[in-house]
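Q: Sequence in, structure out?
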Amino acid sequence: MTGDRRLCSLGGVTTPDDVRIALFLDYENLAIGTRDALRGAAFDLKPISDALAERGRVVAKRAYADWSMFDEDRRMLTRNHVELIEIPQRMGVVRKNAADIKLAVDAIELALERDYVTTFVIGTGDSDFTPLVHKLRELNKRVIGVGVKASTSALLPPACDEFLFYESLEGVDRGTGVEAAPTAEQPSGEQGVDELERLITTTVAGLQRTGGDAVLASSLKRALIRKDPTFSEADYGFRAFGELLRHLASRNVLALAEGPAKGDPVVELASNPDEDAAFGVLVDVVKALQGGNGGPALSGLKNQVRKRQSDFSEKRFGYGGFLQFVKAAQTRGLVELAWSEDASDYLVTIP
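A: Exactly. Output:
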């Protein structure tokens, strides 16, 4: 579950905790973005509907466009019970601005008049909607963005509580011969899983430090999405978040224990033999560099460790930075850390 509220609907009776969603589509942006990015593939609402069904109950659906440009799309949306908002036929930027303004005004109006709507989904990649996202969040609404990756501004996803890239959704027709290409933000293969491992371990460690309570899988998923609204375990080849956690547990990165609710285990950092080995490398490096004038400075020490162990990263073990890693070694009695006014840096020595 990815929302901040728990979906609870029993026997057709809606409870106050039910997540209610309003969907607003900047249709021209989505349709043209899909066509350009997926080699002529038509935009399909069903993958978005399926993704939202996992998050709550959609109570309003509106799409904004000059519908004379999207005749086939209009029929598809009507079959899916989407209210079509006609934008007067004007030329170029004037018409586009009219659609943006109308969508923003309607969204704010709904937010103010319908308190029971907890989540707004804005389908667009246009950064012009960033102020709308900020305002909805000020009104205590959860905001999910949906956009085509190639036509989505870099400014929009970080503003949202969660952002879904359309072409990554289950059931999207990618067009002839189109495959999802890895990006700099999302490495592929083993490298991608290693980066994901670092992200998750540092997040678990941070939650343990700041919360004090046991870290549940659902809390971890929400924290990951707050860090990166575009986060999805599916991008790394996992069908569900639980499958990802079990994979990391099999790699001795995480330890899972039964939680208060079925399917929501407690997540902890596992005792990692590789961490002990990394501490050993640190000790060996400090010994080699320590001379009569004291130990080496902290700055530059990480590079020396990497010369011994090229794949070293303190984040893999849940540490936010190299200083924290060295302080952990000091706590274990392996090294000593002292500030030097002369060097304007920490000096690291062997006890």
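The CA atoms of residues 155 and 252 lie 36 Å apart.
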